[in-house]
Design goal:
The protein is mainly alpha-helical. It contains eight helices and no strands.
Length: 231
């Protein structure tokens, strides 16, 4: 079983993208004394650093797999078209609209408990996403069957509860981000991105049931894709 290593170029690219993503809200709002932006920055950086350090020790191959995911020839073509939206364009559009809303006051001031509740949801979503990432050594950036890495069904941890906890984490995180920044307008791109995640989940689940041995049986035991009791 191959265990590829991440290259210095891939590592530098990942660091730069992570920093830009984390600090983007502060840049859009244009205020360095805006504490929601700094809390968001700290949460994103801490989450990224801790999860990657643990992953490097536990399953270093997944870091290289994710870094080169778009270069894999056997990645599904439909997913290559969706990845730019779910990885960069969608999340950035949420931050852009929410940040501009916070800067220019398009949304009336929300009750104080709403941003706090949104922060709690955002934190729990990050924890769920990192749990899924660390539990699943095949947590790739694109949909493909990783035969060279001995791809098999993962049914432990959060995968015992739902089949796609990473996508569930993303949906909750993007839904919580606008109200955390005090924005309602940011929910529009958030809902659009969640719709893309629903599509990607359905397509990936269909692919896994057709191509990954044992996944169809796993799907019969773990009934729900994203939301327990719903779908």
């Amino acid at each position: 079983m191959e265990n590829p290593k991440i290259t210095p170029r891939q590592l530098i690219s990942f660091i730069v993208i992570s920093l830009v993503y984390a600090i983007f809200p502060l840049l859009i709002v244009g205020r360095w004394d805006w504490w929601p932006g700094w809390v968001y920055f700290a949460a994103m950086i801490l989450s990224t650093v801790v999860s990657r350090v643990i992953a490097f020790r536990k399953n270093p191959g997944i870091l290289a797999e994710r870094a080169s995911s778009l270069e894999n020839k056997d990645a599904k073509e439909w997913d290559k078209k969706l990845v730019p939206f779910v990885a960069m364009l969608g999340p950035m559009s949420i931050i852009l609209v929410s940040g501009l809303d916070a800067r220019f006051g398009w949304t009336p001031v929300l009750a104080g408990w709403i941003p706090l509740a949104a922060l709690a949801v955002l934190t729990l979503a990050l924890l769920l996403g990192n749990w899924a990432f660390l539990e699943n050594k095949f947590f790739s950036g694109t949909v493909r069957i990783q035969t060279e890495r001995g791809h098999h069904v993962i049914d432990s941890g959060p995968y015992h509860l739902i089949r796609h906890p990473g996508y569930a984490s993303a949906c909750w995180m993007y839904l919580a981000t606008p109200p955390y920044f005090g924005s309602l307008w940011g929910l529009l791109p958030a809902l659009g991105l969640i719709a893309v995640f629903l599509l990607r989940t359905a397509l990936e689940d269909k692919t896994l049931q057709e191509e990954l041995p044992g996944y169809r049986e796993y799907a019969q035991k773990t009934r729900y894709r994203l939301f327990p009791g719903i779908w």
